[in-house]
């Protein structure tokens, strides 16, 4: 799918498509939404849509997705874990430990988790499952959405206005960040295991 096809779709279906794309990007499977935000900025630069309105619609779609995922986690997350947890190798003591760890880091995860594909999709479900207060969740989700959406949209707008860079290179940003997150996670896991091993 080319940049012309995507921007043409934005021109045809407008801000509804922007909202729905970001909404399903949060509640659905992990995907490089960063590239989508960049393309939205490019579309605004080519006067297919308004930059402020496109940015607000993107933020709104992301927040709506977070709220729906939070509600799902709050109402069905814990019962589901209690039923299927043992079958997938997550007995009650393990997933409760995960929930406790998430709750202590919920603010940072909600704000900066947007920048990590996979984390931004899982985070609101965990927030709901841990019964994180709605006001706190909404506040940090909104802050995170703004800090995530605006730079990528502006990047696309600036690139389209100043340079002729194929967006395929920019779309890899999300995967790079996800790869760095996985490397960091593996490094921390190895470090913890090394600390637990007795010194001979």
UniProtKB/TrEMBL annotation:
Chain ranges of the VTT domain: 32-157
Keywords: Membrane, Transmembrane, Transmembrane helix
Xref: Pfam families: VTT_dom
Residue stretches spanning the membrane: 12-31, 51-73, 137-160, 166-187
Family: Belongs to the DedA family.
Name this polypeptide is given: DedA family protein
Organism: Savagea faecisuis
């Amino acid at each position: 799918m080319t940049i012309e096809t995507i921007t043409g779709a934005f021109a045809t279906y407008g801000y509804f498509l922007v909202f729905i794309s970001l909404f399903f990007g949060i509640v659905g499977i992990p995907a490089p939404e960063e590239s989508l935000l960049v393309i939205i900025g490019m579309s605004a630069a080519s006067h297919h849509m308004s930059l402020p309105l496109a940015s607000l619609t993107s933020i709104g779609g992301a927040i709506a997705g977070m709220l729906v995922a939070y509600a799902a986690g709050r109402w069905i997350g814990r019962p589901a874990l209690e039923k299927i947890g043992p079958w997938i190798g997550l007995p009650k003591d393990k997933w409760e430990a995960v929930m406790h760890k998430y709750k202590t880091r919920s603010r940072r995860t909600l704000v900066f988790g947007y920048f990590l594909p996979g984390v931004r999709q899982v985070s609101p479900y965990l927030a709901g499952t841990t019964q994180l207060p709605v006001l706190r969740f909404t506040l940090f989700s909104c802050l995170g959405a703004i800090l995530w959406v605006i730079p990528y949209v502006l990047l696309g707008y600036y690139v389209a206005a100043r340079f002729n860079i194929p967006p395929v290179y920019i779309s890899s940003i999300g995967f790079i960040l996800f790869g760095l997150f996985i490397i960091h996670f593996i490094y921390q896991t190895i470090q913890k295991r090394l600390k637990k091993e007795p010194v001979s």
